[in-house]
Amino acid sequence: MLCTHKPWLLATISSSSSSSYPPQMKLLNQNFNLSIAKTKTQVQRKSLGNRFDDIDDSDVVDDGGGSGLLKFSLPSHVKSITSTSNPFVKHCLKLKNSSSYRHFHASALVVGTTPIREIYRYEEASQEKTVMDCLLLLDKAEIPEELDTHSVHIVRISSMVMKKLSGVQSAESIEAIALMRFPSSFLNLDVGQDKPDCQRWFPSTNRILVLDGIQDPGNLGTLVRSAMAFQWGGIFLLPGCCDPFNEKALRASRGAAFQLPIVSGSWYHLETLKDTFNMKILAGHPDSDGKSMKVSSLSQEFVCSLAHDPLCLVLGSEGHGLSEKSQQECELVSIPMAGKFESLNVSVAGGIFLYMLQPKN
Fold this sequence. Notes:
Layout (H helix, E strand, L loop, with lengths): L10 E3 L11 E3 L12 H4 L36 E2 L5 H11 L1 H7 L1 E5 L1 H14 L5 E7 L15 E4 L1 H8 L9 E6 L4 E3 L18 E6 L4 H13 L4 E4 L9 H7 L8 E3 L2 H11 L2 E5 L10 E3 L2 H6 L5 E6 L7 H6 L1 E4 L11 H11 L5
Parallel strand pairs: 3-6, 5-6, 8-11, 9-10, 9-14, 10-11, 12-14, 12-15, 13-15
Antiparallel strand pairs: 1-2, 4-7, 5-7
């Protein structure tokens, strides 16, 4: 559907928006020159509970019924953008800064040539198709090697626009930004779903990393990248985690969030996954130090005993550790340390767990 153009999207929060995620929105001006479409990924997210901790309710809009999802299209004749006041630049900034806006549009900005190239290589090898809507290139910069320029809308941008979108003061260090749609492997599960179909969540359930309230995007992104490096089957996000498509999380994951299946859900969904595939659930935890709870040690013997068992590994945040539910439901495991430290940074500890427990095939 195409409508006539008005400068940009104006929105206000609907009174019922607090009960669903993305929050429902109300259009104030319906005269747009915008194409309106639904994608598979977007339809899976149309009535979700608040999931990520960086949602800004001031950024949400409503289509009247909560089911229409807008897709912004940059006209094909646009080949360059020089002003930071350009409406498309403002749209990209909202994608960068607002989780609710990103998930409403099911799109994110990937900053830097290296992660863009890694996503492209993965797509070529796996035949997965993450759609790149637009490639923003610094004026006079060369087109990154290996990118299929015939299917990508390339727009040249000024150094001022690049600085604004990348957040990097030296625009010369960043030459490319890709506007990409969320991969179909990302699922944000409906909290009201009675019978979740966990068979389709992960291609392999041999090793699944579960993150419990990881709010630091750098830690979350690093863990996603480490899980990818050690061939884990996917990531499951429990409530309280930051958005994996957050700018800092994407920078830390170096594009891995577009390659590894990520599912956001609740303990109900996780228990369904566990029961369906008869999985063990371990959780990283500091040594009990003589306290009542039993904590196993991550020894080679312990690792070998799990070699043939499908398992989930739960990691909690540094600030709050594992949730009470995780402590109750999981077998607790600690990393033996000679030094007198209570714990390691979660991304460091997670890297050790992911390496030690990686699938052996």
